Amino acid sequence: MRLLKSTAIIGSLTMLSRILGLIRDIMLAKYLGAGVVNDALVTAIKLPNLFRRMFAEGAFNAAFVPLYARRIEGGGDKDAANFAGEALAALFMLVALITVFFQITMPWTLNIIGFGLDRTAAAGATAPYDLAVLYARITMPYLVLMSLAALFSGVLNTRGYFAAAAFVPVLLNIVLISLLAAASRADWNLEQLALYLAIGWTVSGVLQAGMLIWGLRRSGIRIPIKRPRLTPGVRRLFTLGVPGMISAGITHINLMVSHSIATTQDSAASWLYYSDRLYQLPLGMIGIAMGIALLPALARRLRSGDDHGAMMTMNRAMEIAAILTLPATVALIVMPEFLIAGLFERGQFGQMDTQETAKALRMFAIGLPAFVLLKVLTPAFFARENTKTPMIYAGISAVVNLILGATLFFTVGFYGLALATSIAAWGNVICLAIILKRNRHFVMDKRLMLRVPRIALSALAMGGVLVWLAPIARPYFANSILIDYTVLLCVCGVGFLVYILVAGLLRAYGLADIRDAFSRSSKT
User: Fold this and answer.
1) Cβ pair 257, 107 in contact under 8 A
2) Vertex 7: Cα angle to 4 and 9 (nearest 5)
3) Which residue of 76, 103, 327, 497 is surrounded by the most CB atoms within 10 Å?
4) Above pLDDT 70, what percent of the chain?
């Protein structure tokens, strides 16, 4: 079983990207804060980011990988290369048309996600909505670049080359961190800084696509350039791909809906953005990496008729997800203020921003296990070329999120949007799990049923220590990155040690399991 090894490769590189992304957001909070200019910027990047997450983080691969893998086995490398070329041409044409449409209609279509932004400008400034339109037009080409990168990544992942595709998001963070570092020395106002960041977003897309092309050539993989045609293979790709993109991207669609509603309150979009970025750190390292690695593994098992092996792969994926996700969930729930204060509270980001962002983070954390489980459950459908079922329940989840989010926003406050997203995700997970169990496509084995409660108890023990320790450590924050991060690392390190020790005592997981997984991976 190559699952753990593949997940480790993807997860480690994704972790590097997420850590750099966290550094980027720390600098963003310092120089832009959580005001109307940052609201405009985060609104502008929502459209290209939605497509990036839907494509680059597994949804496009959900449709492309099984079809491409079948071509390799059935027709060989030449047939697979022709299919990839056809898919590339069709995808480029479709996404280019979408990009042109948004470029022309942006002053009106941006209302979809930013209708609450202020249309009036303060003296000597530009209206937040007009800023968002400008920034969105600059970042829209990122859509085309990331769509192509998604296909290149799918080809490399199917061939077993995970590193290049997992590394390219690092380039985005390097570009943006460089711009933010320059801001500390340049005399830019907030609007100028946001403008340069928008430009940097698209420039990074060029670098990412270029690196994947280099990775394909280095691996000896050829994708021919073809004219767009609606071939049978392309028809099948889009038949599977459209539902797959909707279902796999539902978490991000829900977040976009939440953002759109949040723009009606000043700074709420920024508070949701920073809380989203923080819980996305474990989701990116665990859920996304798991989903990318799991789909090819399941597809190989099912194509060879190994239903038992596919079931075992699902159980082990659940186990890995639990042992990595539950402690992160508990930590985000019990000490969100402590984490946000240590990471972000300096410069333009004040104490009130910390308190409001923490409210949203706690609500998002409730749904973190569900967000990760969706990355584990949906590949079980995609590997069987069933993208309609997840799409149906994703659509139901989106409706629940919209209605509940709007209701909670106007009753409890903006953080109700985050809670609605978490509740909708859990509903989606429960529905998919019931269907898989009913069809005997997933049944929890004895090992999983024994270990999940032990993992949960270990995480709760860690949470108890953090509840006691975080208030004691909070006064040691000194508005200094060096001191604040040292305090953060010490508290998180103590929590991690407690979790590892309790998990070891309860035998929630063992090093022998990791050695066994890698041993099996070397034999496959």
Assistant:
1) no
2) 110
3) 327
4) 87
Q: Does position 125 have pLDDT exceeding 80, yes or no?
A: no
Q: Model-level pTM?
A: 0.73
pLDDT in tens, 462-503: 999 999 999 999 999 988 888 998 999 999 999 999 999 999
- Is residue 387 within 8 A of residue 247, CB to CB? The reply is yes
C-alpha span between 234 and 247 (Å, rounded): 20
Among 140, 166, 175, 171, which Cα is nearest to 57's?
166
- Given a contact cutoff of 8 angstroms between Cβ atoms, the answer to whether 340 and 357 are in contact is yes
Strand locations in 27-152 (E): none
Nearest CA to 37 out of 29, 47, 27, 26 is that of 29
* DSSP-assigned states of every residue in 435-480: HHHHTTS----HHHHHHHHHHHHHHHHHHHHHHHHHHHHGGG--S-
- Residue 486 CA: distances (Å) to CA of 29, 138, 337, 349, 431: 19, 38, 16, 20, 43
- Alpha-carbon distance of 128 to 415, in angstroms, equals 22
Residue 399: CB atoms within 10 Å: 12
Residue predicted with more confidence, 159 or 332: 332
> Which of 144-148, 277-281, 359-363, 468-472 shows the lowest mean pLDDT across its residues?
277-281
Which residues have C-beta within 8 Å of that of residue 411, sequence separation ≥ 6? none
Residues 109/114/120/122 CA torsion (nearest 10 deg): -130
Amino acid identity at 146: M
Structure-block tokens of residue 319: 């186990």
Longest dimension (CA), the chain: 68
H and E: helices and strands count for the chain: 22, 0
Tell me how far CA of residue 484 lies from CA of 244, 338, 343, in angstroms.
42, 10, 8
Q: What are the tens digits of pLDDT across the range 190-246?
A: 899 999 999 999 999 999 999 999 999 988 898 999 999 888 888 888 887 777 666
Name the residue among 439, 131, 165, 387 with its Cα closest to residue 292.
165
pLDDT digits (tens, 9 = 90+) for 42-95: 889 887 777 666 655 555 666 787 788 888 877 788 888 999 999 999 889 988
Cα–Cα distance for residue pair 442/136, rounded to 1 Å: 42
Distance CA 196, CA 266 (A): 23
Phi first, then psi: give them for residue 67, nearest 5 degrees.
-70, -40
